[in-house]
Amino acid sequence: MPREVGVLALIAFVVALGFGVVVPAIPLFARSYGVGTTAVGLAVSAFALFRFVSAFAGGALVDRLGERLVLTAGLVVVAVSTGLAALAGNFPLFVALRAVGGIGSAMFTVAALSLLLRSAPADQRGRATAAFQGGFVLGGIAGPAAGGFLAELSPRLPFFLYSGFLLAAGLVSAGLLSRAPGPPPGGRVGPGGPEGPAADGGLRAALRSRVYLAALVANLGVGWMLFGVRSSLVPLYVTEELGKSVAWAGAGLLVGSVAQAVALLRAGRLADTWGRRPALVLGTALTTSSIAALAFPPGTAVFLLSMGTLGLGASLLSSVPAALVGDVSPRQGGRAVAVFQMVADLGAVAGPLVAGWLTDRAGYQAAFGVSAGVLGLALVAALAMPRVPRRA
């Protein structure tokens, strides 16, 4: 694969590692200002909210200025705002700096994914996105453990460390991604994407493509379940519905993360060789069935099996939808990537809120049933994709 793929995977690992380090420290640091629980939630959500609202503008910057410049600038913005947040003298300033960090994060993620999709040839796009997402997964597993220990020493220390990680990633970006590649060789699409003028038509043409719409619906499900409900509802389900300790919740989440990490590269290869459509159908079917199982009477064995199956499905949903975006819009892809990123952020915000409300009103089974329905929509969209003959 092109050198850019390995560099971007390394940057993703460093960024995810630093983010994982700082996550346990944010509530503790916010509490040090003497604020309540709601204000602590604001400090956590400000980053995600401004990341969401600024993503489309980040995509426009990518189309205008190029991926490398926007990627490096985004890393620097998050690094500087995070370092200053550790020195903030009052809570409103701390929240404002977290919001600025969300804008920088949107710039980085949109630019990095756009560059990745434009760098990788069509028949390697699934493996390229799998390697990139693998960096995030591994960094996300390793970071929180170190972050909890560092936060015990000083709530400010993780912020400084994260800022340093981001500056290092920015230097790697500026040094090793000095020249953005041209359009990838080997045609415009991969084995599962459609040939046609939509590949050069930008966002408007992409929105008329069933392939791009399927990628959006799948990424909505990823944000809803993997980024949102899995973190917010699963630990409560284990302790309140199964009657187990928090350690069991951690074990279940670990089973899912390990299954996802182990299967990720294989999932990318399937997307390239087997075809995008069958790979997406398999991924959405696995994730839908895994969450639907939790809508039935609770059981510990069912829970662990569900988390493992969810991880296997997540390995496909981490690579195939992004590869589809690259198939549809490989040249001017900044805005298309931005919208793709935004639907995942929307799912990550809406999922915990809707699932939490349903749990309070009707119980955990109803919340998981609706979440399975959201993933089921992605399965329907995958089945509606056009069939494309496999290439030799």
UniProtKB/TrEMBL annotation:
Alphabetical list of Pfam families matching this protein: MFS_1, PTR2
InterPro entries per UniProt: MFS (IPR011701), MFS_dom (IPR020846), MFS_Efflux_Transporters (IPR050189), MFS_trans_sf (IPR036259), POT_fam (IPR000109), Tet-R_TetA/multi-R_MdtG-like (IPR001958)
Domain called Major facilitator superfamily (MFS) profile: residue spans: 4-390
One annotated Gene Ontology cellular component of this protein: plasma membrane
Subcellular location field: Cell membrane
Primary location group: membrane
Superkingdom of origin: Bacteria
Keyword Transport: no
Listed GO MF terms: transmembrane transporter activity
Parts of the chain that traverse the membrane: 7-30, 42-62, 69-89, 95-117, 129-151, 157-178, 211-227, 247-267, 279-296, 302-325, 337-358, 364-385
Topology in membrane: Multi-pass membrane protein
Xref: PANTHER family: CHLORAMPHENICOL EFFLUX PUMP RV0191 (PTHR43124:SF3), PURINE EFFLUX PUMP PBUE (PTHR43124)
Identification of the protein by name: MFS transporter
Lineage, uppermost ranks: Bacteria, Bacillati, Actinomycetota, Actinomycetes, Geodermatophilales
